[in-house]
């Protein structure tokens, strides 16, 4: 938090974006290393012999093979960041507060809790991960059917 105050980005969305990016990027890299190591070296060498450059080999051969693992890492990161409360509570006060911070603020109001707003925020918090996971399951089902 002290770094963000010194840089002048405390209580901004930029501080949250950079913090979440640094937090989840390490997880995605950690998951992607074994995925790219599973790419057969013979396939990469065959593409190189056929005249493809390293970028084409990566985009057309290695990335499609590792895409399922990377997609899982992206889903994990999305759900982690969407439901995250502690970093957002620490790095924001009022201007850049996220929905979990606002919902937590409502539930700590004591006797005057606006339950309608709390329930609406709970539904709003639950919808994007559910829609995202539904779309992902449709995508994975279609990918597995074409195998």
Automatic annotation (TrEMBL):
InterPro entries: BP-dep_ABC_trans_perm, MetI-like, MetI-like_sf. This is Binding--dependent transport system inner membrane component family protein. Belongs to the binding-protein-dependent transport system permease family. It is found in: Cell membrane. It is a multi-pass membrane protein. PROSITE patterns: ABC_TM1 (PS50928). It comes from the Bacteria. One of its GO terms (cellular component) is plasma membrane. Keywords: Cell membrane, Membrane, Transmembrane, Transmembrane helix, Transport. Pfam families: BPD_transp_1. Residues 1-136 form the ABC transmembrane type-1 domain. The keyword Transmembrane applies. Its main location: membrane. The chain crosses the membrane at residues 14-36, 57-82, 117-140. GO terms for biological process: transmembrane transport.
